[in-house]
């Protein structure tokens, strides 16, 4: 079924119109007061609670954008094919692999990186250090981000749930046993804090 | 990755139009976890000129059951399918298959549509820079036949030409066992007829056709389903062999059985002989064992993959027993 | 210089070479041995702040990528780079025939391999970076440019199998280097003979022979190999992913007609794992060399990077076929072992397969031969560690003998424990001679391990225990000595900072994750008497003092001495300074912090200097070191007529050297042992092997950093189990192309593939390192892979002498395929 593409596409929301008048009317009615739309290849992104408006190349992965272009080098690239978890970032609340996502497809997304998690003083950072849940440290940011996402959706995970959540994170140095300890410890801490708040 | 144009499609029509315009020169991107890997390694002779993003199409990611039918949007995430309480209880094989696919991160990105449309993982086909320009790339031959074929087909090659690369999906055999239908932008197809093997193609989809929905009929009363996966690692790995089974019991005997193996053949392998053996029987170890043997009775293993036959046979047996709660 | 300083100096020299027990340990330990505070690098690594070489970005930096050979053995006849040069963003293309690229440069290999080209025109394995290097604005552009280079190749015949490569008429795999044949190490470290195996076999009650096959496996370091070169005038500023920065510096010193050491600035940031590997392979520094040339031409910094796939080309010095013949008595005493290893591509053929049997058993007749054979694959280098081959041989010998006799392998172990063909009586005498307390390390390790593992309930006759879940249960045991072996030296300095008296360790180390930095601080804190939080070590900058790399498990047995020697020297300096007039100039001096006191009367505890007989007389290090020279014309003190107090620098350096193990006499009797236990379940219908429990017992002599030691135990167990069960590099037999150079098809264990691991540390004090310590870093990862075979044998009653222990091999052993 080969339909003609609508000629006049709204740069804000992508709705299509047959005439310029139609498009114009729509923009004034629906998008009055909105900021200027981003240019072609432009995206808006929230990274660690800061808003960015960026022009990106189609072939940039989200990892390349954040690590190489923006210089947030916490997230690492180990396998570059979605098989190791080192590049994990939280996007719209879910832990995903930034090396297998295109930056240009992240318009409007909310991204949390390890830097943001550390900046907000998340207890995972301290717990990881204390429990030696790292050796060379290259995979560690990926684990921290994945663990944080786990605790966000399940604040009291048991051992099996932790291992299940971290099943996509590879550690060559073999620190796996320590991640369970570190996350359990944070879960205990968060539980205590909740009790205190309630009590 | 090299340069390419990127389009966001906001409707199925728009996607189809773009696909029609570009033909083989463009690729569709949903979750992206397959296509980006192919592009990073430049495995194909030609690099896509354009990617058509279909994640921007609204309304294709819902999961709902109504009127005796489970409707899953093609863009539904594997993680959501695995966690969905209705699917877990009534369409268990699919929830288990989705839940065993890849890794937790990838399940947050990968879609069910992308999963059944995914390309083969054969390590000759996937070698970087098109090192092996094989049959599936319109090249001369299959390199696995004389090469290392430990993960290749145990049921012979494809009909046209003789490709021995297996279909790698975990969800696909579950959909076959559950007798699903695939709804595309232009038609509805039985899942078993959805797969085919042609150069650079793993499905019957035309160049300007996309999957929009998967429909799974509610299993009849007395049914249960199960999915088992065999891989060297407990996470991340593609299957070496997997098996999905749906059994309908009546008066403790098997009234209907649908048994599907995958990663053992070029397309999901419906183990018809195994189904014949188990139908009408009470499920016990002996019957399941017989069914397993029947499932692989036509196996034609290659030099390095005989072990897969034993595993396939075992998985069929165990999946049948799992359906019976054993 | 105090009298005590002279004593300390004499002791330092006495402990050189690590040839005897430490006579001068501390009386009590505050930080050494305890579970200390968090790692010094922990917060940086967990928060993403730790920088690695892959994270380095400099203004104007170019990215360099290399051509990889598509053929396992081929020569470039013609190369046309014109299309690549035209690609926008490409700045510089180096060719193999570029006159500025040296015919050979010192790229860090052993001296027996001369003449390494930074960019070769001939490839000797598929995937070899060679031929061309492209520097461009981005990595993606460099990669695209490489695909535009047109090459006419002369393909040559290639070999992949070591035994076939030895057959007469086999084509030469590397004719430029090995013109006489693919088995190249004839007469070079190829035979290791202890006594008379023929006699031994004649005396034996039984003789068995078996063959082992080990597929190649590789290091998989998360951070890709890379480096940055920037010329600041004629001074290079370099960032390098490398295990031994100081060694790299030594080679860089010889490049381009010679770059003075004092002009080379080398940044060794955090390293995304090393495990050996790229330190030893020529094209790691070859990449840097090319980056240097390009950087010189473009007047911009150049970062060379290798891809994940390129990092797969190399294996671990245990790949090959082992032919083993064992003669033994009916009571389990082994009399003779003769073994030949056809080893693939080892570039360090330093020992035969019987080395560990020689070092840790009483077996009187041993003969081991290593045929180093070059095939068209990447080089085999020391990867945690080079002892994989000898350890595998020991485990298989011990367990095959136990099997033949129906004996508990632990009994066989205890019967054969010894050293250099002598029994424990002899070894115990040596322990006394060396100054050690005589302990039976193996016995202690076994006792602890057996209890933890519940071995007596777990062990059974092979193939006899089926579990309720239908699987076959099996347990395996392996043991050997604990080692810290290679030759090494190092130097370190410690300074007390002015103003607050904190201590800084100065040394260019190379962090590979073992938390060595914190360990040195523990030693220094205990030796100086300072609080641990007052002692700090920043490993990432290069003050010129080099520490020994943590490889060969001898990081602590050299660097531990360094930290201690320097701390003891410094302590004497501090005490002397505290009792001497301070700030001496022409104008006079100030009275000492402790007047009319000798240094011998003082001590330091919790960062406070005090008089031993009257602790109320005290001064904190912070107060003692507080004075510092103020500067500038408007200082208050001068205006008020007072004189600036200042202090002589409190700084000491030290050095240490260890005589290496890889010389014919092997200078040290190995007294410490390690024992490992593994439990498996084998699914006999699918061939799946599930490892359900591992217990590690390592006699480290003395624990310094407890959590770091345990980290090596569970970490090594996981790497070991992964190598033994899952990992192998696969090549296409027809084309020689690597088929699984990626992390999906090459299987590294995930968190769901691991089992409970017990970590037990024994401390007999019989190590040659400081405080009686011996190394641990390599040991477990080297021993655990071999455990798969005896454990699976115990489960199914059939030996699988091939690694990795994949399902197809299990099914075959069961007769099912």
What keyword list fits this structure?
heterotrimer, A: alpha+beta, Ubiquitin-like (UB roll), 2 domains, 5-stranded mixed sheet, 7 helices, 7 strands, 14% strand, C: 817 residues, alpha+beta, Aldehyde Oxidoreductase, domain 4, Aldehyde Oxidoreductase, domain 3, 3 domains, 7-stranded mixed sheet, 20 helices, 29 strands
Describe it for me?
The complex is a heterotrimer of chains A (199), B (326) and C (817). Chain A has 199 residues and is an alpha+beta fold. Chain A has two domains: 1-37; 42-198, Ubiquitin-like (UB roll) (Roll), CATH 3.10.20.30. Chain A is 39% helix and 14% strand. Chain A has seven helices and seven strands. Chain A has helices at 20-31, 62-69, 114-119, 123-130, 140-153, 159-165, 176-198; strands spanning 8-9, 16-17, 42-47, 50-55, 88-91, 94-97, 109-112. In chain A, strands 4-3-7-5-6 form a five-stranded mixed β-sheet. In chain A, strand 1 (8-9) and strand 2 form a beta hairpin. The longest helix of chain A is centred in the C-terminal third of the chain and has 23 residues, at 176-198. The model of chain A has no long low-confidence stretch (mean pLDDT 91). With 326 residues, chain B is of the alpha+beta class. Chain B has helices at residues 12-22, 35-40, 78-83, 85-90, 92-100, 104-107, 112-117, 171-177, 272-278, 285-295, 306-323, and strands at 5-8, 26-29, 50-53, 63-66, 69-73, 181-184, 188-190, 195-198, 201-203, 211-217, 223-230, 241-250, 253-262, 269-270. Chain B has a five-stranded antiparallel β-sheet, with no helix packed on it. Chain C has three domains: 3-30 and 488-658, Aldehyde oxidase/xanthine dehydrogenase, molybdopterin binding domain (Aldehyde Oxidoreductase, domain 4), CATH 3.30.365; 53-156 and 219-312, Aldehyde oxidase/xanthine dehydrogenase, a/b hammerhead (Aldehyde Oxidoreductase, domain 3, Alpha-Beta Complex), CATH 3.90.1170; 320-485 and 661-813, 2-Layer Sandwich (Aldehyde Oxidoreductase, domain 4). Chain C has 817 residues and is α+β, with helices and mostly antiparallel strands. In chain C, the strands form seven sheets. Chain C has a seven-stranded mixed β-sheet with strand order 3-5-1-12-9-10-11. In chain C, strands 7-15-14-13-8-29 form a six-stranded mixed β-sheet, sandwiched between helices. In chain C, strands 16-26-27-28 form a four-stranded mixed β-sheet, sandwiched between helices. In chain C, a hairpin with a 2-residue loop joins strand 20 and strand 21 (588-590). Chains in contact: A-B, A-C, B-C. At the A-C interface, helix 3, helix 4, helix 5 and helix 7 of A face helix 2 and helix 18 of C.
């Amino acid at each position: 079924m080969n339909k003609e593409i609508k000629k006049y596409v709204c740069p804000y929301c992508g709705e299509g119109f047959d005439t310029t008048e139609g498009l114009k009317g729509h923009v004034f009615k629906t998008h009055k007061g909105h900021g200027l739309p981003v240019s072609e290849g432009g995206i808006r992104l929230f990274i660690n609670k800061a808003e960015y408006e960026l022009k990106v190349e189609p072939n940039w992965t989200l990892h390349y954008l954040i690590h190489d272009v923006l210089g947030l080098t916490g997230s690492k690239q180990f396998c570059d094919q979605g098989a190791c978890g080192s590049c994990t970032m939280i996007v719209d609340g879910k832990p995903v692999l930034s090396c297998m996502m295109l930056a240009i497809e992240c318009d409007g997304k909310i991204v949390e990186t390890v830097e943001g998690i550390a900046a907000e003083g998340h207890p995972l950072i301290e717990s990881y250090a204390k429990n030696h849940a790292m050796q060379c440290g290259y995979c560690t940011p990926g684990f921290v981000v994945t663990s944080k996402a786990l605790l966000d959706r399940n604040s009291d995970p048991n051992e099996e749930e932790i291992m299940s959540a971290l099943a996509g994170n590879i550690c060559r140095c073999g620190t796996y046993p320590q991640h369970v300890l570190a996350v359990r410890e944070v879960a205990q801490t968060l539980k205590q804090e909740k009790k205190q708040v309630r009590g | 990755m090299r340069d390419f144009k990127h389009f966001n499609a906001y409707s199925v029509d728009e996607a189809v139009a773009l696909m029609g315009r570009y033909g083989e020169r463009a690729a569709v991107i949903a979750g992206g976890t397959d296509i980006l890997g192919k592009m990073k390694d430049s495995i194909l002779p030609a690099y896509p000129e354009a990617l058509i993003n279909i994640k921007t199409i609204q309304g294709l990611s819902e999961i709902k059951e109504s009127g005796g039918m489970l409707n899953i949007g093609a863009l539904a995430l594997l993680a959501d399918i695995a966690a969905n309480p209705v699917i877990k209880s009534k369409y268990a094989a699919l929830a288990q298959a989705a839940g065993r696919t890849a890794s937790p991160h990838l399940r947050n990105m990968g879609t069910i549509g992308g999963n059944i449309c995914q390309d083969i993982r054969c390590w000759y086909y996937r070698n970087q820079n098109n090192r092996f320009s094989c049959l599936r790339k319109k090249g001369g031959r299959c390199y696995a036949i004389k090469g290392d074929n430990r993960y290749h087909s145990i049921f012979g090659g494809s009909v046209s030409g003789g490709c021995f690369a297996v279909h790698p999906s975990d969800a696909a055999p579950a959909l076959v066992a559950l007798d699903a239908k695939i709804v595309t932008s232009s038609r509805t197809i039985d899942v078993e007829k959805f797969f085919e093997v042609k150069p650079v193609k793993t499905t019957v989809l035309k160049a300007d056709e996309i999957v929009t929905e998967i429909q799974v009929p509610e299993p009849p009363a007395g049914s249960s389903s199960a999915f088992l996966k065999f891989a060297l690692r407990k996470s991340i790995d593609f299957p070496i062999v997997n098996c999905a089974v749906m059994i309908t019991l009546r008066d403790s005997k098997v009234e209907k059985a649908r048994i599907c193996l995958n990663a053992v053949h070029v397309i999901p392998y419906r183990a018809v002989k195994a189904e014949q053996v188990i139908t009408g029987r009470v499920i016990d170890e002996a019957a399941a064992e017989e069914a397993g043997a029947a499932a692989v009775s036509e196996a034609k293993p290659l030099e390095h993959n005989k072990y897969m036959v034993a595993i396939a046979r075992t998985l069929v047996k165990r999946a049948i027993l799992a359906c019976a709660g054993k | 210089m105090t009298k005590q300083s002279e004593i300390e100096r004499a002791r330092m020299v006495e402990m050189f070479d690590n040839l005897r027990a430490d006579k001068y340990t501390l009386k009590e330990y505050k930080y050494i041995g305890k579970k200390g505070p968090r790692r010094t690098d922990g917060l940086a690594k967990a928060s993403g702040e730790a920088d690695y070489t892959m994270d380095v970005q400099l203004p104007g930096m170019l990215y360099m990528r290399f051509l990889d050979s598509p053929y396992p053995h081929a020569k470039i006849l013609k190369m046309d780079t014109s299309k690549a040069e035209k690609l926008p963003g490409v700045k510089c293309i180096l060719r193999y025939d570029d006159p500025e690229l040296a015919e050979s440069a010192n790229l860090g290999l052993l001296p027996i391999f001369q003449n390494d080209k930074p960019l070769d025109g001939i490839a000797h394995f598929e995937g070899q970076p060679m031929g061309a290097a492209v520097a461009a604005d981005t990595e993606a552009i460099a990669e695209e440019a490489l695909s535009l280079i047109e090459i006419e190749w002369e393909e040559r015949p290639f070999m992949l199998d070591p035994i076939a490569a030895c057959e007469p008429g086999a084509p030469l795999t590397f004719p430029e280097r090995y013109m006489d044949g693919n088995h190249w190490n004839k007469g070079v470290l190829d035979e290791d003979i202890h006594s008379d195996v023929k006699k031994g076999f004649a005396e034996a009650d039984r003789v068995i022979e078996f063959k082992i096959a080990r597929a190649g496996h590789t290091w998989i370091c998360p951070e890709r190999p890379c480096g940055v070169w920037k010329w600041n005038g004629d001074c290079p500023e370099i960032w390098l992913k490398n295990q031994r920065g100081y060694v790299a510096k030594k080679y860089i010193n010889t490049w381009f007609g010679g770059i003075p050491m004092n002009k080379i600035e080398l940044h060794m940031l955090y390293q995304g794992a090393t495990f050996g590997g790229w330190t030893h392979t020529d094209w790691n520094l070859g990449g840097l060399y090319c980056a240097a040339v390009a950087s010189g031409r473009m007047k911009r910094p150049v970062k060379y990077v290798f891809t994940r796939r390129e990092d797969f080309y190399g294996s671990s010095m245990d790949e090959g076929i082992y032919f083993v013949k064992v003669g033994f008595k009916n009571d389990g005493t082994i009399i003779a072992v003769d073994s030949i290893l056809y080893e693939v591509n080892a570039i360090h053929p330093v020992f035969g397969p019987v080395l560990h049997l020689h070092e840790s058993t009483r077996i009187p007749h041993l003969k081991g031969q290593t045929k180093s054979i070059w095939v068209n694959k990447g080089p085999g280098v020391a990867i945690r560690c080079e002892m994989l081959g000898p350890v595998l041989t020991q485990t298989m010998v011990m367990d095959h003998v136990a099997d033949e006799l129906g004996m508990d392998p632990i009994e066989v172990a205890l019967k054969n424990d010894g050293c250099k063909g002598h029994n424990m009586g002899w070894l115990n005498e040596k322990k006394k001679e060396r100054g050690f307390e005589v302990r039976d390390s193996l016995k202690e390790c076994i006792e602890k391990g057996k209890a933890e593992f519940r071995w007596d309930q777990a062990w059974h006759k092979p193939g006899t225990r089926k579990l309720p879940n239908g699987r076959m249960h099996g347990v395996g045991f392996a043991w050997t000595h604990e080692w810290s072996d290679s030759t090494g030296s190092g130097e370190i300095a410690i300074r007390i900072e002015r103003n607050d008296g904190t201590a800084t360790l100065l040394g260019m180390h190379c962090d590979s994750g073992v938390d060595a930095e914190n360990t040195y601080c523990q030693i220094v804190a205990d030796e100086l008497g300072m609080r641990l939080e007052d002692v700090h070590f920043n490993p990432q900058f290069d003050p010129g003092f080099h520490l020994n790399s943590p490889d060969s498990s001898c990081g602590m047995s050299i660097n531990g001495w360094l930290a201690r020697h320097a701390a003891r020297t410094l302590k004497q300096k501090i005490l002397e300074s505290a009792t001497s007039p301070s700030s001496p100039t022409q104008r006079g001096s100030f009275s000492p912090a402790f007047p009319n006191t000798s240094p011998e009367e003082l001590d330091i505890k919790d960062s406070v200097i005090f008089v031993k007989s009257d602790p109320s007389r005290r001064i904190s290090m912070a107060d003692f070191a507080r004075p510092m020279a103020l500067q500038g014309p408007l200082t208050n003190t001068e205006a008020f007529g007072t004189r600036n107090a200042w202090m002589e620098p409190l700084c000491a350096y030290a050095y240490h050297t260890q005589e290496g193990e890889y010389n014919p006499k092997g200078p040290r009797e190995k007294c410490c042992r390690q024992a490992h236990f593994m439990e498996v379940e084998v699914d006999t219908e699918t061939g799946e092997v599930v490892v359900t429990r591992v217990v590690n017992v390592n006699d480290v002599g003395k624990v310094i950093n407890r959590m770091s030691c345990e980290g090596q135990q569970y970490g090594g167990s996981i790497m070991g189990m992964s190598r033994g069960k899952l990992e192998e590099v696969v090549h296409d037999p027809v084309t020689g192309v690597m088929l699984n150079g990626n992390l999906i098809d090459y299987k590294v264990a995930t968190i769901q593939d691991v089992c409970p691991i017990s970590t037990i540390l024994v401390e007999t004090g019989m190590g040659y390192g400081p405080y009686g310590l011996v190394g641990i870093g390599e040991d477990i990862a080297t021993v655990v892979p071999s455990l798969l075979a005896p454990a699976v044998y115990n489960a199914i009653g059939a030996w699988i002498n091939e690694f990795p222990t994949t399902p197809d091999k299990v099914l075959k052993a069961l007769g099912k395929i």
